[in-house]
Amino acid sequence: MTQQSAENLQKYPAISDLYKLAKKRIPLIAWEYLDMGTGEDVALTRNRTGLDRITLLPEFMKGKQTQNTTTELFGQSYAAPFGVAPVGLTGLMWPNAEVILAKAAAQYGFPYCLSTAATQTPETIGDVVGEMGWFQLYTPRDETICDDLLLRARDSGFRTLVVTADIPAASRRERTARAGLRMPPSITPYFVLQAAQHPAWTIATLKNGLPRLRTVEKYADATDIRNAAKFVGERFGGTLSWEYLQRIRDAWDGPLVLKGILHPNDAEKAISIGIDGIGVSNHGGRQLDAAPAAIDALPPIVAQVNGRAKIIFDSGIRSGLDVIRALALGADFVLCGRAFMLGVSAFGEAGGTHAAEILLADLKTNMAQLGVETIEEVKALVPQIAEH
Questions:
Q1: Which of 41-45, 74-78, 201-205 bottoms out in mean pLDDT, i.e. has the lowest?
Q2: Taking every pair of C-alpha atoms in the chain, what is the biggest distance, in angstroms?
Q3: What is the mean pLDDT of residues 292-315?
Q4: How confident is the model at residue 251 (pLDDT cuts 50, 70, 90)?
Q5: Which end of the chain has the least Cβ crowding within 10 Å, N or C?
Q6: Are the C-beta atoms of residues 136 and 259 closer than 8 Å to each other?
Q7: Which of 198, 263, 283, 354 is catalytic?
Q8: What's the rounded Cα separation, in Å, for the pair 81 and 110?
Q9: CA-to-CA distance for 214 and 224, rounded, in angstroms?
Q10: At what angle do helices 338-347 and 351-370 cross, to 10 degrees?
Q11: Secondary structure of 170-216 as H, E, C letters
């Protein structure tokens, strides 16, 4: 760690600090895309409230302890029980964000999940992330495109496939509409004004180029984001069914996670067709404002699955303590989206490692406070859920 990185960690030791800095550093259009939920942001708030309700009883007098955060998932060892969740249009928040986060994942030994709707390709990120790569699939309506995406991900070295289930249709995301973000995006006078007021973001964007949906450009026959985004809107989503998922299961020979599950019945159906991991998530509160907090949906799904598949949790994670809370409630692994994007938005090239250091330090500190040394001991904790 450089001296500057150490100083930054002293000054900005929590994800909440990165939140404040990132909000100042990137244009409103980009900020609203990162921070938004949908509707009145009730589900977004519910995620945070749900996590805060979980308490844990520490046990003391354990003598000298050393905290070990390594864990195993799908036969692979990771240095931490968390990774980077897939985020679409990543380059809007900070140029080259995917490469920055892939480098951090490779350095620290946790997974980075590249979204189909990210602004870099699996071919580019596969070379950077090495053995830590996961690929998230938004299902295209054309099955030949689906087959090609799977082939590209596999050939690029991605080991785990994550299929997103919880976007049967695009949500309205009113905050981004008010901020002036359109899909496909367009450069308006207001956008230019915002760019001028955020010079660090603008200089980085000019250096790296405007964000593009590079993974889908091959199929859209377009190299500009407007036409590629239009293609995604017309040709992706609203197609996933159990039959389609079975087809993907048959085609993918590695671990397969179904992400966005809130109902135990869906978890049961997924297991019946051979899904390896159930991703408990409400899409960060960005799809259905009446959705339960993802953390509240976790225990019933854990009970239903009963060890027959791995449980991957995301939505609302902002600290190592939140990671512990999810693991104690039955998750096997945790993904963090906004936490890492806040790091990159706040610190650019240094943001991935900064967020990783925050989460790891907080994870180890709270493990010590609770009197546990390993992730298996974390999973054996008995959490209490306070009343509303």
A1: 201-205
A2: 64
A3: 98
A4: very high
A5: C
A6: yes
A7: 283
A8: 8
A9: 9
A10: 130
A11: CCCCHHHHHHCCCCCCCCCHHHHHHHHCCHHHHHHHHHHCCCCCHHH
